[in-house]
Structures are given as structure tokens and as C-alpha cells.
């Protein structure tokens, strides 16, 4: 059965890596529910084995403790079930185009960040996080603005490495597209055509106006830059964008200008 996130993928988009929060996050988020569960179990055990009553008042107190313990036990179990169902419904994806976060059980919420707009990702791991393989990952744009933060993400190092690898592949595919010359080249002059032998009668002069267009049509266009030089130029522009020397809007405008000449 396809997940909800799979229905949001565009044509040609494929999932490279899936992830979610570490299971320890459910324990931290449900610490109050776990405390209630332990307290309810203690009350039930005390009521069953240690409380004894012979009179009516004692029996009433014992029954009250029993009902309170059962009520707390039900509340804690329902609370923990909700936490674990929401944790299981989380879906963090890296595709060949973007990073997606899908949350919610009945009411879904999805957020994504294009790989082209991602400049870097800040990774934070505690000692326990390094031992158990989780951490916090904050995604940044070229303007050093935070786009999204993944808290207690499982296998966070692999998630960050895969995200940056897919970003690099996407940029390489875009820069390897052969681009046309940046400027129209000036046709090179061609040698004059050899004279055609004329009949013995008076020769008809060849109009010079007819020879000029033929010479211009036969002149091949010569690019001032090779495809490798153009690709290198695009790479330099992308490097300036990644370092913050130019804005993402300027980079996109230049990229669309070059690709529009295909």
C-alpha cells in the first residue's frame, strides 16, 4: 500500500532515502504518560496485595484506590498509543529533487524544500545521540535562513550526507546541458569563387550582390566559447551562489537565460 508521501511525488521524482524520528523521541515526548502509567500500576498493585479492610469505610477506600488506578492506567495507555501512532505516521523523505516532511495521522501536514535552494545543513549531536545514532538537523538556504529543522532524526548523518549528494547530482545534471554561444558570432570572410568560363559571345558579368549572400550563407558560425568553457562558467556562477556572493534570484535568472537559448 502506497504511503501518503508517495502520492505527492511529481513525474520522474524518486525516493532516495526515508527516515523518521528516533524511537527515543517517543519516550521523551511521552514522559508524562509514562509517569502516569507507572503510578497507576503502583496503585493497582498496592490495592491488590497490601491494602486490607474489614469495615465498610476501609472497603470504600480500597475500591476508590482501585478505580483511580484503573482510570489512570487507561488514560496512560491511550496517551501512549496516540504518541506511537503519530510517530509511526511520520515520513521524512529525500528525493532526487527535494526534501519532504510528512506528519499527522488523520490530518496530514507536508512541507518540502527544493534541493537547489539548500545551501547547507547544521547537524547537532549529543554524546548519547552519537551513541544511538540520532541528532538535530537544521536546513539552511543560501541566505543562511533556516527552512526546516528535524528534531531527534534517526540516522541523521546518513540523512545529511544523502541530501547533499543528491543536491550535487542535480546541479551536475543541470550544468552538463550543452548551451548555445553566449553571443552571435561574426561570419568569417570567404575567398571569392572561381570565375566560370563564359561562352565565346560577350560574357555576362556576375552580379556582386548575388555572390555576397552566398558567401555569407556558406560562412559557418563559430562560437567564441566552447561547451566546456560554458559549463565551467555555469559552475563558477553556482559556486558564487553557494558562497552567498550572488542571490538565488540572480542565479536562477542567469540559469534560465542560458537554458532559454537552447
Overview of this protein structure:
By secondary structure, the protein is α+β, with helices and mostly antiparallel strands. The protein is 47% helix and 18% strand. The chain contains 8 helices and 7 strands; from the N terminus they run βαααββββαββαααα. The strands form 2 sheets. A 4-stranded antiparallel sheet has the order 1-2-3-4. A 3-stranded antiparallel sheet has the order 5-6-7. A hairpin with a 4-residue loop joins strand 6 and strand 7. Helix 2 runs antiparallel to helix 3 and helix 7 runs antiparallel to helix 8. It is elongated, with a radius of gyration of 35 Å. The two termini are 41 Å apart.
Average pLDDT value? 76
* N- to C-terminal distance: 41 Å
Query: What would you call the structural class?
Result: alpha+beta
Query: What global shape is seen?
Result: elongated
> How many helical stretches?
8
Overall radius of gyration: 35 Å
What features would you highlight for this structure?
single chain, 262 residues, alpha+beta, PH-domain like, 2 domains, four-stranded antiparallel beta sheet, three-stranded antiparallel beta sheet, 8 helices, 47% helix, 18% strand, elongated
Amino acid at each position: 500500500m502506497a504511503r501518503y508521501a508517495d502520492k505527492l511525488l511529481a513525474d520522474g521524482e524518486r525516493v532516495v532515502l526515508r527516515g523518521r524520528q528516533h524511537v527515543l523521541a517517543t519516550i521523551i515526548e511521552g514522559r508524562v504518560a509514562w509517569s502516569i502509567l507507572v503510578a497507576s500500576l503502583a496503585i493497582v498493585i498496592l490495592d491488590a496485595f497490601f491494602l486490607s479492610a474489614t469495615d465498610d469505610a476501609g472497603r470504600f477506600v480500597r475500591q476508590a484506590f482501585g478505580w483511580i488506578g484503573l482510570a489512570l492506567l487507561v488514560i496512560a495507555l491511550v496517551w501512549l498509543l496516540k504518541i506511537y501512532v503519530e510517530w509511526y505516521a511520520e515520513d521524512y523523505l529525500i528525493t532526487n529533487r527535494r526534501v519532504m516532511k510528512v506528519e499527522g495521522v488523520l490530518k496530514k501536514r507536508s512541507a518540502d524544500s527544493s534541493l537547489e535552494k539548500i545551501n547547507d545543513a547544521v547537524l547537532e549531536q549529543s554524546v548519547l545521540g552519537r551513541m544511538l545514532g540520532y541528532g538535530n538537523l537544521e536546513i539552511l538556504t543560501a541566505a543562511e535562513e533556516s527552512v526546516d529543522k528535524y528534531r531527534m532524526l534517526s540516522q541523521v548523518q546518513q540523512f545529511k550526507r544523502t541530501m547533499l549528494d543528491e543536491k550535487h547530482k542535480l546541479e551536475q545534471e543541470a550544468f552538463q546541458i550543452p548551451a548555445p554561444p553566449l553571443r552571435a558570432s561574426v561570419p568569417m570572410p570567404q575567398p571569392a569563387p572561381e570565375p566560370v568560363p563564359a561562352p565565346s559571345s560577350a560574357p555576362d558579368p556576375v552580379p556582386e550582390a548575388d555572390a555576397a549572400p552566398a558567401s555569407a550563407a556558406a560562412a559557418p558560425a563559430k562560437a567564441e566559447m566552447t561547451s566546456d568553457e560554458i559549463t565551467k562558467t555555469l559552475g563558477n556562477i553556482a559556486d558564487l551562489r553557494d558562497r552567498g556572493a550572488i542571490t538565488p534570484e540572480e542565479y536562477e535568472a542567469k540559469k534560465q537565460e542560458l537554458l532559454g537559448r537552447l
